[in-house]
Amino acid sequence: MRFTKMHGIGNDYVYVDCITHSPPRDPVNLARAVSDRHFGVGSDGLILICPSERADVRMRMFNADGSEAEMCGNGIRCVAKYVLDHGLVKKPRLTIETGRGVLALELQIQHGKVERVTVDMGAAILDASCIPTTLPGPRVVKALLPLPAAAGLLPTQSSTLEVTCVSMGNPHTVIYAENVARIPLDKIGPLIENAAVFPRRTNVHFVQVHSADEVTMRTWERGSGITLACGTGACAVCVAGVLTGGTERKLLAHLPGGDLELLWKEQDDHVYMTGPATEVFSGDWPD
Question: Is the overall model pTM greater than 0.90, yes or no?
């Protein structure tokens, strides 16, 4: 099986072209195998580039644990780069079908290769039951999340977190902190991800606000653990910042793997994300 390793600011996936090649027989177990950083290729998951009857191409995304997710912001930019750079589609504006629906993308092309991509991520989903979370709604903004198992893990020594929940087609929980570097993300991330109030689990983001238009964030990704970046998560952080009054609609987010530019437009209520996409190498996996 031919594959290509790509990343969006360090959020790396193994990509398989299922348009010109046969799709893998068992993508769930393949995702687990290729994602292993010691015995596999090493990645945050597996992304299949498939034919679509509704868009230019379709993206299916599997986390490192084999679970299929609705959407990946960094992943969709890489899909756009792959299909143009490899000649599957030759135009600067694409549509890609995802579990979130069909999304529109604008490609910034230099010397025939995609360098950066702007994705119209659609409108944020704010209704608690649709995120989904059982925290009291209709919107979950600065809500209190009791987490007794987290006692002693946070700098405040509190076992209750103030959270804001947003879905960008997949669920996100945003928590603000004075210093995100001090958060033991490997310990508290899985506790929040698997909390009973999130029936489909949740992605977890700790955010440090520098100014009204600049933040630093760290992510525990549902099904993959600590990742260097999360595109849908950065969009959720942009929305959460406006809802909580901490930041503005235009935001620069610093993630461990690099920066993303976000804009929550008032005109159409959509969130727009801009960032790079990088191809690392291609190879053959014994399937």
Answer: yes
What Cα–Cα distance (Å) separates residue 139 from each residue in 7, 170, 227? 33, 16, 27
Residue identified by tokens 């999130």 is 198
Q: How many structural domains is the chain composed of?
A: 2
**Does 230 qualify as catalytic in the annotation?**
yes
Q: Which residues contact 75 (CB under 8 A, 6 or more apart)?
A: 8, 11, 13, 45, 47, 59, 61, 231
For residue 52, being part of any structural domain is answered with: yes
- Model pLDDT for residues 112-157, shown as the tens digit of each residue: 999 999 999 999 999 999 999 999 989 999 999 988 777 677 766 6
Domain that holds residue 240: 128-268
* Cα dihedral sign, 13-19-22-24: positive
User: Residue 235 catalytic?
Assistant: no
Active-site hit among 78, 130, 165, 230: 230
CB of 271 closer than 8 Å to CB of 262: yes
- The reply to whether 63 and 187 lie within a common domain is no
181 in the same domain as 54? no
Please indicate, yes or no, if residue 123 is contained in any of the structural domains.
Answer: no
Q: Tell me: do 80 and 176 sit in the same domain.
A: no
Q: Looking at the chain, how many residues does it have? A: 287
